[in-house]
Records
---
Amino acid sequence: MGINLMELLVDNRQHKYKIEERLIRLLERAALVCLAYEGWDLDYEISLSLVDDDENKELNKIYRGINCPTDVLSFPLVEGNQIIDIEEKLLGDIVISVEKVALQAKKYNHSFGREMIFLLVHSMFHLMGYDHDTKESAKDMRAREETVLSFLNL
């Protein structure tokens, strides 16, 4: 009997940027570190969709009522560490605009990979119930993100 570890299910639906397998492995590691840092079980499945700005904009409009693209969308399937009653142990869905990743990496003067990992980590904390809707919650979430990024040497 083995231990089931977290699985990151990646659906690359954009075609402008090449996503290296090495980056996918780093994203998996980042998701696992987020779960471990929070003391969550390590056997969740997480869906990651890599999309262009057009698809991201459409999803943002449908689910948030905002008619413009954003960098990352999070759709949690867990509430208060309580799993929605389905067969798989799904944490939720993450949708990242790869076009935004490239723009923000340039804007913040760091690598494409580092920006992609940051957005995944940011979204993982949303999936685990954190938000940044107040000054205090934003500070708390940012501290968690920075701690995980430091564990990843980023």
---
Amino acid sequence: MFLSLPCRYYRVYTDLDVPSVETNFQFVERELPLSIGQTALVLVDVWSTHYIDSWLARAKEVTEAKIVPILESARETGMTIIHAPSPPVADRYDDAPETSQTKSEGSDWPPVDFRGIYRSGPYAEFGRNQEPILPPTYKRYETELDINVLVKPLEGEHVIHTGPQMHNLLLEKQILHLIYVGFATNWCVIGRDYGILAMNERGYNIILIRDATTGIEFHDTVNALTATSMAIREIETKQAWTTTTDEFLKGSKDNCEL
């Protein structure tokens, strides 16, 4: 069984007879024949809560209008479903690995107090200011943060903690194509060790459903959602194909009617 999915990427090259200038760059569109058995839908951080209220409202709208029908459609096709809600949330589900797969601290260099962006001790002057909102946020997350109830895993679906764990699952199931939805576009969708950057480096074919995600915006970009748009364009340029919810749903429907 195959899902025929129209996708695009952004080409930062030109043909030999066309001037190599940025105004001549353009999208390349292609219809990809995805074997259902070799394809997985990956839901990144589709959370129930967040400390950024404006982003949470936008993400809830995307979840209800886009991600829920995508998930339902993928389930109907028999596609592998992978929930990737960050390790602390994944800990609450039965699919947790028996042994810890957290990242090793490695060597003692750089010094522990120097690591990260909130540096301390003799390196405090190089760190960012501590944010008073974070301690109560993390405390609240201990009880409130969970996978959104609208996309809770069903029996037989996978909940992964780490990129290595997901890679092992994909190897076991011989999956080559990963269709991504979830949040936030410019944070976890690209940056997690099971996100687009890492899985692209591992060699998988990545497809982002570009209207089934939204990024963290800035005070001067939120009205136009510029940060989200630029993150998607960067992904289209270097790491992945993209498609839309409508195209996915149409392809899934056509596949189910075969």
---
Amino acid sequence: MKKWVIFVLGFIAGAVFLFFVLLIIGKSSSNDNGMTYFDKPGKCISKKDFKVFQVIGEGYALAEERLDFSSEITLPGNLLVLVTNDNGELYYDDQIIEVPKGKCMRQIGVYEYQTKSENWKTVPIVQVMNE
């Protein structure tokens, strides 16, 4: 009977140990998406509207700053950002993300990705927040 109890306790201890090892591995590999978040939001980087040109995933999109609030035109060299949100809104290509009065695009991190031409770019991760 004693051997049976020792076997069960050893099995439980092994399962708990395996759970913690897998948890540690999962946390370390979760940063492989290229996103690094700040501990607290950074400064406002723009009050202008942005136009989505590529959806990255659910709730994430690469967007380019528009010249002014009424213009549809974007030019090379405009501010490029990864826009994210907490309310689960899904983005789509060519969507205009309007920044309401009293709010701004506040930097909350950085996103590093590889372009089609195999160059690496790093852009700010932003979210619409109060100024």
